[in-house]
Design brief:
single chain; mainly alpha; Putative membrane protein; EmrE-like; EamA_dom; cell membrane; transmembrane
Length: about 300
């Protein structure tokens, strides 16, 4: 199996994990706030990385200079990405956020063309827009509405999250050529662990309810969800996405993120028995067609 085939498999794999992560996030949010969810998620991820390192299953060798060089990646993802997203969801619905999140490939393509000099054909750009249109169609059909008074603030905050994700894609390509995938993943995870735990603990201390931080950990459903989010949706997806971006390019891989929308719909139908409507099928068809066209059509 050549490197390009492995990279496509990596892109498909992280899209599948992200698609199902929305299901587990929805379950976890039934027990804890978004900030506490992130704190526990990155605590699990950090603990697993420590165990893997101590048992010699992974080898990480980073100098202080290396860590400082990688830190900008962690600033944009997970920190700004999740912070902007969490505040945005206080003002707009998840459907509205989903529409804006679909813009990540467009932002990534624009940034990649400027900073990474990545080139895409006109036809590839069309297929990328087709995939984005599929996501937008699904969420508009679900009733997304930006006409509320607070929508403008939520819109701007969510754009901050989208832009942070796109910048992270660019930095993943750039830094991926300088460092090993696992080295990048470790720094990003540890920064998320430190910052999200500090913010979460501070909020509980401020409300004189420190035990509230530990309360969700008494629920099996929450523990299972956090394990999925911490191990698969943080460590594994982080490594797979960087691996794919380095070998396929930021603009090409970013469009795979829209496949997560299709898998989220399937997960909801299979596990939560949520209904699938005609607009789901139409939107999913556009998304898949866009991804296939973007990747099967070679640049001239």
């Amino acid at each position: 199996m050549n490197e390009k085939t492995k990279a496509y498999l990596a892109a498909l794999s992280f899209s599948a994990i992200i698609g199902f992560s929305f299901l587990f996030t929805k379950i976890a949010l039934g027990y804890a706030s978004p900030l506490t969810n992130l704190a526990h998620r990155y605590t699990i991820a950090a603990l697993v990385l420590v165990v893997l390192h101590q048992t010699k299953l992974i080898k990480v060798s980073l100098s202080r200079k290396d860590i400082l060089s990688i830190l900008p990646m962690s600033l944009f993802y997970p920190l700004l990405f999740f912070i902007f997203q969490s505040f945005a969801l206080q003002y707009i619905s998840s459907s509205e956020a989903g529409i804006l999140q679909a813009l990540v490939p467009i932002f990534t393509l624009l940034l990649a063309s400027v900073f990474l000099k990545e080139k895409t054909s006109l036809l590839q750009k069309f297929f990328l827009l087709l995939s984005v249109a599929g996501v937008v169609f699904i969420f508009l059909s679900k009733g997304a509405n930006f006409s509320t008074e607070t929508a403008s603030l939520g819109f701007l905050l969510m754009l901050g999250s989208v832009f942070s994700n796109a910048i992270n894609n660019i930095l993943s390509k750039y830094k991926g050529g300088q460092y090993k995938v696992m080295d990048l993943t470790v720094v990003v995870i540890l920064v998320g662990f430190i910052v999200f735990n500090c913010l979460s603990l501070f909020s509980y201390i401020a409300s004189s309810n420190l035990m509230g931080y530990f309360e969700p950990l008494g629920h099996v459903g929450y523990i299972f969800s956090i394990l999925y989010l911490g191990i698969l949706a943080s460590i594994v997806t982080g490594s797979l996405s960087i691996y794919a971006i380095v070998r396929l390019g930021a603009s090409t891989v970013s469009v795979f993120g829209n496949l997560g929308t299709v898998l989220t719909i399937l997960a909801g139908a299979l596990i939560l028995h949520e209904p699938i409507y005609s607009y789901h099928v139409i939107g999913a068809t556009l998304i898949i067609a866009g991804i296939l066209g973007m990747n099967l059509r070679k640049k001239k």
